[in-house]
Amino acid sequence: MKNIFANFEEYFLPFSEEVQVKLETLRKTVHAQTSDLEEYIGYQMPAFKYKGKPLVYFAAYKKHIGFYPMPEALQYFEEDFIARKYKYSKGAVQFPLNEDLPLDLVEKMVQFKIAEINQL
């Protein structure tokens, strides 16, 4: 599948200013976890690689931001999703647009993935 977005900025552009702020906040939160990240567009979504391996993806939708930290992280943090009443699946967790982003949880998931990649 050919990417229609060249970078994060192009991806963010069609969304409202409020959603753009949330997307940029999510971007900065992921970047704050390590300086060794590469941004790219994968599966038509903003994504990050760490040490050449996929780290996390995210995407904006009509009512939520989907966060894709890979199945192992989703399974590990399942109790957090249940406690915070987030919809989730084997592939993603949904953060409602009408709520604040759970940046503490995002940080934990990114750190989990970094640790997982470091063990490879």
By helix and strand content, what is the structural category? alpha+beta
**N to C succession of SSEs:** HHEEEEHHEH
Strand percentage:
15-25%
- The radius of gyration computed from the alpha-carbon positions, rounded to a whole number of angstroms, is 14 Å
Quantity of strands, as a count: 5
Q: Can you tell me the CATH topology?
A: Aspartate Aminotransferase, domain 1
CATH top level assignment: Alpha Beta
What is the number of independent domains?
Answer: 1
Largest sheet: 5 strands, antiparallel
CATH architecture: Alpha-Beta Complex
Description:
- By secondary structure, this protein is an alpha+beta fold.
- The model has no long low-confidence stretch (mean pLDDT 96).
- The protein has one domain: Aspartate Aminotransferase, domain 1.
- It has a five-stranded antiparallel β-sheet.
- The N and C termini lie far apart (28 Å).
Q: What does the secondary structure layout of this molecule look like, with pairings?
A:
Blueprint lengths: L7 H5 L4 H15 L5 E6 L2 E6 L2 E8 L3 E5 L2 H6 L1 H6 L9 E4 L6 H16 L2
Antiparallel strand pairs: 1-2, 2-3, 3-4, 4-5
Quick description:
With 120 residues, this protein is of the alpha+beta class. The chain has helices at residues 8-12, 17-31, 71-76, 78-83, 103-118, and strands at 37-42, 45-50, 53-60, 64-68, 93-96.
